[in-house]
Each structure stands twice: as structure tokens, then as C-alpha cells.
Amino acid sequence: MKKLYLLILCTLFSLSASSIETVDYTQGLSVWFDTPNNLDGQAIWLRASGTGANPDKAWESRSLPIGNGSLGANIMGSISAERITLNEKTLWKGGPNTAKGAEYYWDVNKQSAGVLKEIRQAFLDGDSQKAGYLTQENFNGLGAYEEKDETPFRFGAFTTMGELYVETGLSKINMSNYRRILSLDSAMAVVQFDKDGIRYQRKYFISYPDSVMVMKFTADKGGKQNLVLSYCPNNEAKSHLEADGNDGLVYTGVLNNNGMKFAFRIKAIHKGGTLKAENDRIIVKDADEVVFLLTADTDYKMNFAPDFKDPKAYVGNDPSQTTLAMMDNALKKGYDELYRNHEADYTALFNRVRFEINLEIGTPNLPTYKRLANYKKGVPDYQLEQLYYQFGRYLLIASSRPGNMPANLQGLWHNNTDGPWRVDYHNNINIQMNYWPACPTNLSECTWPLIDFIRSLVKPGEKTAQAYFNARGWTASISANIFGFTAPLSSKSMAWNLNPTAGPWLATHIWEYYDYTRDTKFLKEIGYDLIKSSAQFAVDHLWHKPDGTYTAAPSTSPEHGPVDEGVTFAHAVVREILLDAIQASKVLGTDAKERKQWENVLAKLVPYRIGRYGQLLEWSTDIDDPKDEHRHVNHLFGLHPGHTISPVTTPELAQAARVVLEHRGDGATGWSMGWKLNQWARLQDGNHAYKLYGNLLKNGTLDNLWDTHAPFQIDGNFGGTAGITEMLLQSHMGFIQLLPALPDAWASGSISGICAKGNFEVSISWKEGQLEKAIIHSKSGIPCNVRYGDKTLKFKTVKGKKYEITLKGDRLTVL
Ligand code: FUC
């Protein structure tokens, strides 16, 4: 079925303007709408911040996102004009190049480490109020780093690149068969409709290999393209737009806030009719077909070792030049070759995983928003569940490719000059969640932007570690930007602002990447130092109490509760990074002495504790409230994403974690439901995990399947995709567990190409709730431990070989 669909799709793309065919997108994986957007929301440059829906509702819930990890766009699909919001992931306000550049960096930190002794003494004296007060006074950043009205805005914000309009001269009168489709099979957006007996079609894709956005306007009748392309710039920039020859435009902008340069170029290629570039517009008359090529860039440069005094530390090449080179390349190739390259690049990643559940039940012939509405009413739609799963993988490929920064709070899509939480990198759950699906769903390459981001934090993070904790190593705080910001912001709420284990949490992703890929060269040359220095910070920032134990004083449970002498979350992260560092040093056969220290601290770290309701304690004292439905569940870090609590190895702690999840309930914001889905999966309760997945789709998902907090926040999409993978395969406890949390609802199905730690690729099929078979492809040739229910099997493997696992009677067998 899928093959047939692709064939139709490919045929379509090679047809000429006069022979457009209707494509049956219901057969593939696609998100689609049957009604056009109007143009209400265009370029309303509002500083949309905080929670609540985005003021441009159509953009937020009914646009189609495309991207190549650097360049992003949303297709609105209006009739009278196509509106396209543009983004480049490094277009940020803030950083050392703001007017207060010299004060950007670590001068703002108070030398807080000296106060730690007093804070800890207050805890010893039982005066937690004093400890809290001193923490708030001394562990806040100076200045107003999180305030958008700070002049100049030094922390900064991700900001829009502006909007393109392509006026079509068409009205909605006599328009029918409208479709706005995002094909996940080809990473292509299509808008098509009939009007006055003519079929119009627009196609959009953004190529990673050729760094270009391609837009093709066509119809099944010649001479029907009468278009005017124009641009509305970000109003916080000095702008210059001019014709580039007879057939193009070149835009250069400079952000007022920090002088960041950005640019794009457009070239238009037409068949038939006339086309001319006039000042700031491209005008097409009576053409059969027009292809617009767009290249865009900023002058941002990643920097892993910035000179703290250099305001230009993050300034690189002139984007008016880099966009020229990209455009020359694109023009040489032309539409067909650009599409072939794009498709080959994208499908090589996307097609690695196939997922099918109860195939006969689904309603793909309905537009996605109607399916979602039915699903909300309780109509089963397993194909919608599959689609959401693959949409998460699509979004990761579109927003996180090597060579650029990681996916931010909205991936790389934003329609405003700044937005909720500055559309930044939140380190207390959000950015980490973005990367949960990367390795398990066979997209380990997409982790590279996160690895580079972590590298960019190390040098500044050493300053933060030193100033606040007199600690070795590096750390980060609640929020980061693309300019190496690692200090705390300033806030009355220390529960939000004090988060020194954000750095070690990020560093656990380095080990995860290694553990999945077993890339020892990476571990040796890049990964180990990041892990080791993070472990050093973790050790040094702890309080070695007079009774000999180690505790994270002061610490807070993210966005929840008082300043504490040692919250469970902080200890769970410390446990994780120390275990990672110990393993990494063993793999590389290095640092045996330091490893002993890590082992010693681990042994004396305040243990997990179970409280009066049977719950896992969140704080150092039993003040948990069973009615508390707070969205953060960070004290269950050891259950997920960590690996120190499991029903297999620590059943009592797993039961205590279950009590917490029961108390917290099954609702909350998008990402929170996404996290709880993963945690229920780790508890191996498939039906409860499935309930959370259902809740995420029903209560945290917009019509275009974007996750909503509200507003749109992409982390829940990634948490959802990761959670489904966790339901079907787990490998965090040193063995591969097949179908650990299969819900009753998914009676039959299969998933292929997902990954387990140890560099195994796994495909599983099941029938009537029972394992049919699993194929395990050993890519590093290490021994394999498999579990299915309580059945276990161990066998040696040879690199490159595939092994078939089935259940024979009561035993697992391997072929
Ligand atoms: C954390 C969450 C909020 C929101 C923000 C971006 O602070 O607690 O709910 O997701 O990140």
C-alpha cells in the first residue's frame, strides 16, 4: 500500500504543469486539512509570551511545518495569497553582542559559593526559612535576564525571520476539493484545490543536503500563474530588500538588539508567461509554472570555547555571501534534482522505522483534525496513533540536523519577535524531552545538535560552577540560549530558578548517545570529557554532611516546593551521571582513581526514601500531598529517564513511584502527559501508559498534531513518540525487554527498526497480545540479553548478524 502511494506521489512530482493528478494522500502518512486558512493572523508582531494560545491561532493549530534543522517554514495554504512564516534556528536576540556586551557574561554572577556554608549551617540548625532566604538572595542572577523589557535584552529570544506572501489573484468563490497536506513519507507540503474547472497545486519542501527551500506553483492548465511575491520583515530589524537581477530578491536584515545579520535570497524560475523582479517584489504573469528557491542564513557561529571578553565571539560569516553559494548550487541542480536529493536524504532517516497497529481500524479518509475530534469523543483510531508516533520522528528530522543548534521549545518554528519562555532552551525537562526519541527511534544523528549545544555550554558552565558552588567541572541552569548562557536567571521563585543539576542531566544524554551507538571514538574524543567534568561538578556541588552522607543542599524540586537540603530529583540526576561516568571511565580504561571517588560518593548519597502514603519522597522530609497534581514529576527521574528505579530490579521503589503517579493523576500540560506516559511504560503498565497517550492526544494536541502546553510547545510531541517506543521496547536496565508495556488495545501489530542500547536494531511483531517474533540485528557484536515477561535468554552475537527470537512453549529461543 505504502509503495503504491509513493509511486503515485513520485509520478505526480515528475508530471508537467498541464497534467496534474489528484493524489490520494489518505494512503500514506500525512497530516491534512480540507479547508483553507484565511489571512487574519499575518505578521502580527506581538510579543506573545507566557501561557495561553498563540494570538495567531491559524498559525498555531492549522499550519503545516517543514524544515531542515536550520531553516523552517509554516505553510498556511490560503487561497488569495499563500502566507509562509519563515524561521532560521540561529536568529536570536541577546548575547555578548548586545550593547551591554561586556556585562553579558559571568560578571553578573554573585560569588555565591561563599554563602553555601551559612546556608548549610541553617539546615543543620533546622532553620530552613533562613536557608531559603539566603539561597534566594545569593543564587539568583543579577539584573533582569529573564525580562523581555530589559534594555538591551541580553538573554535574548528566538525571533521570526518574517513572512512571505505570494498573492495569487484567486478568490474562494467556486473553489472546491481543497487539500492542505503534509506528507510524512516525503517531507513535502502540498496545497491543492479546484477552481473554475482548473486544478491548482503548490508544493513545498526544505532540503537538508542542498540547504534550500523549494516552492512550486502550478496548475493543470497553462498560463494560470499570476503571482506577486512580497515579504514582511521582522519589525525589530533594520531591513533592506531589493531585486536580485530580473528574477530574484535579496534581503539583508540586522537585528536592532544585537546586530545579528541575517539574509535570504529568492530566485524564481518560470515556464511560460512573464516574470520580473521589481524593487521588493517578484511579479509573475500568465505562467504555466513557477518554482521559487529560497536560501537563508544568519551570521551566527557556534563557539565551543568563547573568549568571554569578545562581543563578536559568536559572529561568523556574512549571510549575504553564504546564501549566495547555496543559491548557486540550487540553481545548478534545478527542481527535479533538488527533490530527488531531498527525498533520498529524508527517507534514509524516516523510513528506518515502520509502525503498524490493528491495521484495519482507522479513518485516514478523514482530514486529521476531524479524526482527532472523533478520537477525543472516544472513537478508536489506531492509525491516528501511528501517525502521531511518526509525526514526532518527522518533527525531529525537520528541526534537528547536524550543523545547527538543537530543537528549541517550538522546534524551529515561531511566528513572532519573541514568544513563550523566549522560545529558548529549558533545561529542567523540555530540551531533554526533545531528544528522548532520537536514539530509540533510529535517529541518532539528530542528537548531534544537542551534543554541540552541550559542548557550547561547557566553558561558560565552568564559570557558573565555580562562582556559585566553587566546584570543578561545568553546569547549566534553568534556561539557556545559543550564546552559552549558563547562569541562573533572576526570579522570586527559586524552585524555578535554582537548578544546578540541569548540567548533569544534559550530560547524561552524552552517555545515552554512546550507549545506543557504541561509538567508542566519539566517547574518547568528545563524550568522555563532557561526562567527566559534569560528574566532577555533581560531586563538588554536594554537601558532605557531618554524618558522612552527601546531599544536594540547597536544591529544589523543579518549579515546585521549598528550597530543600536535598531533593530526590537532584540526587537521582547525580546518581545517573556518576553511574555514567563510572561506566565511561571503565570503557576507556581511564581515571581509576577518580572512579573510586565517584563510587564512594554514590555509596554515601542520601538514598531514595518512601513516605507515609507509600510514595517516593519528593523532598528530604515527608511533606508530599496526595492531592498535589503538579505537572513536574522530576522526583521520578530514576524511573525515567534514569535507570535507578525499575520494577525488575527495585520493585519496592517502583511501587513507590507508582503511588506518586497515581497521586499526580493522568492530566496536566502536554509535555507532562508525555512524561507520565514514559513513566507508566517504565512501570510496565501498558494500559495505564496507553491511557496517558490517549490523554496526550485528546487534551494536549492541536489540529495539526502539534503538542500544546498551551501554547504550542514541541516537547510533548517528542515525549509521545518516545513513550510509545518505551511501551514496545526497553533496554535501560542492561537487557532488551520486548513488549514491556503492550496495552490490551493494541492486540496485533509490528514495529521495525527501533533501537536498543548496545547498538542493536530491533523489529518486533505480536498477535493477540503475544510476541510473535523479534529480529535483533547486532551492530556491534556484543552479547545480548533478552527478556519477554519473566522469560530470559542470553546469547553471544556476531557483528552484522540478525537473530530471530520466538517463544517456544514456555521458553524464548534464538535462531
Ligand atoms: C517549564 C515548565 C513549563 C513550561 C516551560 C517552558 O518551566 O514547567 O510548564 O513548559 O518549561
TrEMBL record:
Keyword ATP-binding applies: no
Keyword Hydrolase: yes
All residue ranges annotated as the Glycosyl hydrolase family 95 N-terminal domain in the record: 54-302
Residues of the Alpha fucosidase A-like C-terminal domain: 730-805
One Pfam family it belongs to: Glyco_hyd_65N_2
Any one Gene Ontology molecular-function term assigned to this protein's record: alpha-L-fucosidase activity
Keywords linked to the UniProt accession: Hydrolase, Signal
GO BP annotation list: carbohydrate metabolic process
Lineage of the species this protein comes from: Bacteria, Pseudomonadati, Bacteroidota, Bacteroidia, Bacteroidales
Domain (Glycosyl hydrolase family 95 catalytic) ranges: 334-728
Signal peptide (from-to): 1-19
SUPFAM superfamilies: Six-hairpin glycosidases
Gene3D superfamilies registered for this protein in UniProt: 1.50.10.10, putative glycoside hydrolase family protein from bacillus halodurans
Name under which the protein is recorded: Glycoside hydrolase family 95 protein
Stored PANTHER family: ALPHA-L-FUCOSIDASE 2, GLYCOSYL HYDROLASE FAMILY 95 N-TERMINAL DOMAIN-CONTAINING PROTEIN
